[in-house]
Amino acid sequence: MRNRIIKLSLIIFLSITSYAQNTYSVQPGIKNNQIILQIVNTSETEISLPKPLQRRGIKNLTFRDVSKETITLKPKEEKEIKYIFDVNYDADISKQDTIEFLITDNKTIHLTKQFILIYTQPKEFKLEQNYPNPFNPTTKIRFTIPDVGTGLALSTLKVYDILGNEVVTLVNEEKPAGYYEIEFNATELSSGVYFYRLQSGNFTQTKKLILMR
């Protein structure tokens, strides 16, 4: 899935309070998503206001822009404010996050706009390439399990050496649909090529990883 670019518009009317809400679906693990906020000063005077974004209660998003600069708009001026954010890979697909844009002069709230993110369920089984690779001594392995319609799926994630001998079991339990990330620590192993295999229901996939000391 490609990065999301979301455009929202806020028009400043200093004499009224307005409220609006938008809902978007995003996939966990997607980076460099953008929210572009268009702000228009329709008054006859220059306006200075804090950058309009509230992040309270947000657990699954990481914003790149953490500055708190003041925005100044001349009469009739329009500006675009860009926000860059990543969605955590382990975002809980049963939850949602709400971002609130707040137009205020630090005394009165003039306008708010809520932006709701709903996290989509995976649509297919997938075993991703570990990262980093080659690695020393730890690496991360990501996999997804879709809703198979029969409840929890018994899933195993195992590592094998080049001869096919099982080295370690990283996962061996029933898993609901979701996005998962497991850390593999190979401190006790010697350098070489290994394989990791995901089995969940009728799905099986194997990938290669390289331990390089």
From TrEMBL:
Top-level taxon in the UniProt lineage: Bacteria
Keyword Ligase: no
Listed InterPro entries: Secre_tail (IPR026444)
Taxonomic lineage of the native organism: Bacteria, Pseudomonadati, Ignavibacteriota, Ignavibacteria, Ignavibacteriales
Domain Secretion system C-terminal sorting: 131-210
Record's protein name: Peptidase S8/S53 subtilisin kexin sedolisin
Gene3D superfamilies (alphabetical): 2.60.40.4070
Pfam families reported for this sequence: Por_Secre_tail
Organism of derivation: Ignavibacterium album (strain DSM 19864 / JCM 16511 / NBRC 101810 / Mat9-16)
Stretch forming the signal peptide: 1-20
Keywords from the UniProt entry: Signal
